[in-house]
Amino acid sequence: MHSDIIDFCTKNALEARLGESLCEHTTMKVGGSCPLLVCVSESEILKELIVLMNKYSVRYFILGRGSNILVPDEGFDGVVIKLTGSLAGIDCDGCEITAGAGASLKSLCMAAYDNSLCGLEFAYGIPGSVGGALFMNAGAYGGQMSDVVESALCLENGEIKTLTAEEMSLSYRRSIFMQKRDIIILSVTVKLKIGDKSEIKSKMDELMQRRRDKQPLEYPSAGSMFKRPEGSYASLLIEQCGLKGLSTGGAQVSLKHSGFVINAGGASFADIIALTDEVKRIVKEKTGYLLELEPEILK
Ligand SMILES: Cc1cc2nc3c(=O)[nH]c(=O)nc-3n(C[C@H](O)[C@H](O)[C@H](O)COP(=O)(O)OP(=O)(O)OC[C@H]3O[C@@H](n4cnc5c(N)ncnc54)[C@H](O)[C@@H]3O)c2cc1C
User: Fold this and answer.
1) How confident is the model over 279-297, as a mean pLDDT?
2) For the chain, which domains are there?
3) Which residues contact 9 (CB under 8 A, 6 or more apart)?
4) H or E segment and range at residue 81
5) 3-class SS at 117?
6) What is the reported pLDDT for 1?
7) pLDDT of residue 52
8) Gap from CA of 193 to ligand 1 centroid (Å)
9) What residue owns the CA closest to ligand 1's atom 11?
10) Using a 6 Å CB cutoff, which residues line ligand 1?
């Protein structure tokens, strides 16, 4: 790692970890390390750090809660950035809540509940960050981020600017951030409605219970392993092909929810890819559907 980047971290008292294993930074709990992981808590410092990395052609990756990411066994050859401090804070103003991109979606949902604001209940239980949720327009149980997002503060080409919801091209699990990988989401403002606190709580609890009943939350996973193919459901196709419980090394098609691949213990990235390749091959052969991985591979 270039010494100027290390010096920059030291000078700005950033939490910087050399040779950090990324395994514990993802919900699937597989993968190798990166030469440097740095936690950044202020927009201006982030801006300077990006300039420095661009100057030395150092690759970087903004990591949220790692719940939609698979890290290869050989790791990532660049700087991994996590947003903390003021970039993970939450501020409520009337019916609007602004959350730092590094805040957990759960804490945003709790802030909405605390302030008797409804509209975000669907997101309770999605284990991502606010930035990661906007990045992929996360959604569940009939709701998605685009239903509530007003605007986002972003860093692009060295400039901090506000994007309106329309400018983010949000559609089913898609956003502009997937195409323009150089935009970093700094904070997100959602607009909610005044609601009844006990109704909000019971909706959140009900949806969480549905997750506990249906999803293998007791094991590490990256959530749904395959995108929903047009005209069907990945979990249905996998089940129809009799692939529940199929395993490779420590990776297994969940017995509880066939759309999930779990780390049943000691799985490697290679195990997961070997298993998902096999699932894709059999599903294609038996049903004609071509399944695609939902989580992103950190390359
Ligand atoms: C048990 C389980 C259940 C899940 N259920 C759901 C569900 O119901 N619905 C759903 O939609 N998803 C679900 N997911 C998937 C996942 O939680 C979501 O996709 C979530 O939005 C990912 O957020 P993250 O912070 O973990 O992002 P990460 O996995 O850390 O990153 C994902 C992508 O977002 C980018 N990113 C993150 N932060 C920023 C930022 N500040 N600026 C720019 N880019 C950024 C990363 O660079 C990366 O490309 C589930 C996952 C698990 C493990």
Assistant:
1) 97
2) 3-85 (3.30.43.10), 89-212 (3.30.465.10), 216-297 (3.90.78.10)
3) 16, 36, 38
4) strand 79-83
5) strand
6) 72
7) 95
8) 25
9) 138
10) 27, 61-69, 83, 101, 126-129, 131-133, 135-136, 138-140, 177, 184-185, 215, 217, 221-223, 296
Q: Could you tell me the pTM of the whole model?
A: 0.96
Nearest atom in ligand 1 to the alpha carbon of residue 102 is 41
What is d(CA 246, CA 227) in angstroms, rounded to the nearest whole number? 19
Q: Is the pLDDT of residue 237 over 90?
A: yes
Type of residue found at 181: R
> Beta partners for 221?
262
Q: How far is the CA of 129 from the centre of ligand 1 (A)?
A: 7
Tokens of 228: 């929903």
User: Which residue shows structure tokens 């606190």?
Assistant: 197
Annotation says 224 is catalytic: yes
Among the listed residues 231, 233, 226, the one whose alpha carbon sits nearest the alpha carbon of residue 253: 226
Non-local CB neighbours of 110 within 8 Å, separated by 6+ positions: none
Mutate to test the pocket of ligand 1, among 82, 105, 135 (most ligand atoms within 8 A of CB): 135
Tens digit of each residue's pLDDT (9 = 90 or more) over 110-136: 999 999 999 999 999 999 999 999 999
- Cα separation, 283 vs 243, in Å, equals 9
